[in-house]
């Protein structure tokens, strides 16, 4: 029975490990040291359809990733756990310029053909905005859609890990080091495996560099503020503000405001509320009470970006028994579960659904 290791228990690694644990012919070990995980700090927005980003491969992955969530949830329910980590949510997209809003509506309507999750796209009148959020003071144009969702990344990983343990998958909560790689095996923390998935996000360079690989991944710090507000969190829609920052009302009474995008900070996980001040000011148009409140918590995580902002996943050219993923950037909670499932399929020799050449690892992971 092949022994497969997954290193990294964020959204990619937890999903990959969960799907591998369901395969009767696999012995699965997940390593995770839980350091600054992006997934745990993520805002949780699943809504890729109103982006002007031109990269078509990115859009295909994000659109399919968003549609994959209900399938993942159904698979998990079939295996005995009804996860509450994913919630469909009415979503507002706020644009200061009416023309930008109109352009986005046009883009999203074209995308509707291949996005059955989008049933509704409309513009709200000022009265409709106040009917839903009476305290709103915005002059901006607001688009409303029913397609969006909010995910609690941390809770989803926990649920996936509960299911993999129920299938006798093993979880080792320690830092993994690859000590040796041969043509058909690898040694991780003194244990031999037949194959591995490296789903370590921003940490891929340090895991692979000792084995002679260059990895095109840079780091970006992200912070968001968490406010406790049981009543508003139920009534508020998910509000994607113009520019940086969003209001994300999670179902357990927490409202997230963020997130920041800070380059050149390395793996710094220090909470710095001053960075969030501008985002909180913009959020106050919809949530004035926020301005005088103290955040209950600041979440901090490290995103991984490639030099052209494109994510990658697949097998290493010279070692196909090692599959990797990284560079998911600020939309990795959207594409992560799909990528995790694709990696599980790939490493166990089964067909994948995306065109792997579009996300070619070997453009970003090269031999020194
Ligand atoms: C503040 C913030 C807000 C975000 N908001 C959104 C959002 O709203 N929507 C969206 O789609 N995306 C969002 N993202 C992006 C998304 O969170 C990430 O792209 C995604 O979670 C990356 O998942 P991952 O599994 O690749 O990596 P990670 O979640 O970083 O997981 C990697 C794991 O590997 C572990 N690890 C690393 N090296 C080792 C080792 N050697 N041994 C053992 N374990 C190791 C780490 O400790 C970590 O637990 C946000 C990110 C941040 C930081």
From TrEMBL:
Q: Which residues form the FAD dependent oxidoreductase domain?
A: 3-346
Q: Identify the cofactor(s).
A: FAD
Q: Which PANTHER family match?
A: D-AMINO ACID DEHYDROGENASE, SARCOSINE DEHYDROGENASE-RELATED
Q: Which UniProt keywords apply?
A: Flavoprotein, Oxidoreductase
**One Gene Ontology molecular-function label:** oxidoreductase activity
Q: Which GO terms describe its cellular component?
A: cytoplasm
Q: How is this protein named in the record?
A: FAD-binding oxidoreductase
Entries under InterPro entries matching the protein: FAD-dep_OxRdtase (IPR006076), FAD/NAD-bd_sf (IPR036188)
Q: What residue ranges are annotated as transmembrane?
A: none
Q: Which organism is it from?
A: Aerococcus kribbianus
**One Pfam assignment:** DAO
